[in-house]
Design goal:
The structure is a single chain. The protein is mostly helical. Helix content is about 45%, strand content about 0%. It contains three helices and no strands. The longest helix is centred in the middle third of the chain and has 19 residues, at about 50-65. It is rod-shaped.
Length: about 90
């Protein structure tokens, strides 16, 4: 009976294989990209809406607190009719 020793080199034969290394001239980036549409870019540019709305809400709160805010019943009724008709 013949017993052969495999040795340390035979334990992981994959380490001994030659790897084909690609040249460094092809440097492709595998990073993710995000592209924002033109409409979204325009929407980002219009940030005045939020500030105008915040100012309006602040003014309404002050008017309500001071008792100066008056509700226009006709306008409320017209808006309710528009909402329920359509």
């Amino acid at each position: 009976m013949k017993i052969t020793s495999y040795g340390i080199n035979a334990v992981n034969a994959y380490n001994n294989q030659v790897r084909n290394v690609k040249s460094s001239t092809n440097k492709a980036s595998f990073a993710d990209k995000i592209e924002i549409s033109k409409t979204a870019q325009e929407m980002q540019g219009i940030s005045t809406y939020n500030t105008e709305r915040a100012d309006r809400v602040k003014q309404l709160k002050e008017d309500i607190a001071s008792g100066e805010y008056k509700v226009d019943a006709r306008k409320v009724a017209e808006d309710m009719l528009k909402y329920y008709r359509f």
